[in-house]
Design goal:
homodimer, alpha+beta, Arc Repressor Mutant, subunit A, Alpha-Beta Plaits, 2 domains, 5 strands, DNA-binding
Chain lengths: 153, 153
DNA sequence: TGTGAAATTTAATGGCG
DNA sequence: CGCCATTAAATTTCACA
C-alpha cells in the first residue's frame, strides 16, 4: 500500500520532524490552515501509520555515554535467534538491524567508555563474532519526497 | 560534562520517547508531579541539551519507500570530504556516520525500489567504493540508564 | 523546587459552506 | 475538506511555602 501526500501533509511532517510539540494552532499558522484542519491532517497521518510516534532525540553524551559504536555480528547455526531473543539483556544496544551481506546483524550501541565496550564484547562473544567500529561523528538529515495528492482517512 | 538525572527526569524522558506530544499535565499525572514542576523539568532537559529535539518517526514504507539499505563507503585520498560536502545531492541518504575500521562511512538510505538503488549506486561511484547491505528488519529499543541526582538548570 | 490559582491559549467537537 | 464558533482542557505566570 502506497499513500501519497499533498503539500500540506509534507509541510506538516517537516515541521513535526523539527518540533513535534508545536500546537496545531501554530502549525496551522505556518502552513496557512485552520487549527481544526491541521489537527485532522496530523491525526490522519497518525491513523494511517505514516507517523509511527512522536518521540524525542536524546543527547546521550550529556548523560555520560561518550562512546557510540557499531557492532556487526556473525553467527553459527541459529545462534542469531538466541541473540535477538536475549536483546533485552543488552541495554546498551539501541538499534539492531538484520541485513544481507557479510554480517547478519548490525547494532548501534551507546556506551560510557572503553571498559564498558570491553564488558559488552565479553557478553556478546557467547552468541557470535562481533566486529566493532567506533562512530566518530554523524551527519543526520531528514528528508521526505514530494507527491501531490491528498491523504485519505 | 556529565549531567545526572533523578528518577523524575528519567521517567519524563521515557514517557516523552514514547509520546512526545503528551501534555505536561498528563505527564505530571503519570509521575505524580504538578503541571508546573513537570513543565519546568522538561524545559530544563531541553535547556541542558539532553533533549535535542522533539521529533516524529515516519514510516517511509507507507510513502512508497519500500527498500532500506546500508551502504558502506571506501574512499581514496580526500574524496571522503568531497562526498560529505555533496551529501545534499543524495536525498535518499538519511544518516551518514563516520566510523573506524574497514569502511570510512556507513550510510542509511531510504529507497523506492531496486532501480532506485541502482541509480543511487551509479551516483555514488564517482566518490568512492560503495558496499550495499539490504536491511531486512529492525528491532528498535530505547533505554536510558538510571542515576539519582537532580538535574540543575 | 514544588504547589496552587488566575489569565491566556489551545484542543476538541459539531454545524455549515 | 476546510472554516468558524463553542466548550473543555492545557499552558503560562506568579505568589507563597
Amino acid at each position: 500500500m502506497k499513500i501519497t501526500l499533498d503539500d500540506f501533509d509534507h509541510k506538516i511532517l517537516q515541521i513535526l520532524e523539527q518540533n513535534a510539540r508545536l500546537s496545531y494552532a501554530e502549525i496551522g499558522r505556518i502552513i496557512s490552515l485552520s487549527q481544526s484542519a491541521t489537527k485532522e491532517r496530523v491525526m490522519n497521518l497518525v491513523d494511517n501509520g505514516i507517523i509511527r510516534r512522536f518521540s524525542v532525540e536524546v543527547d546521550y553524551r550529556k548523560l555520560g555515554y561518550d562512546l557510540k559504536v557499531l557492532i556487526s555480528m556473525k553467527f553459527k547455526n541459529d545462534d542469531f535467534r538466541k541473540f535477538t531473543a536475549d536483546l533485552e539483556k543488552f541495554p546498551e544496544i539501541v538499534t539492531c538491524k538484520r541485513v544481507t551481506g557479510e554480517y547478519c546483524l548490525i547494532t548501534e550501541c551507546i556506551l560510557q567508555d572503553s571498559s564498558h565496550l570491553e564488558n559488552l564484547i565479553d557478553r556478546l562473544i557467547p552468541y557470535g563474532i562481533p566486529t566493532t567500529s567506533i562512530q566518530l561523528s554523524e551527519i543526520s538529515l531528514q528528508k521526505i519526497k514530494s507527491n501531490t495528492k491528498r491523504l485519505k482517512r
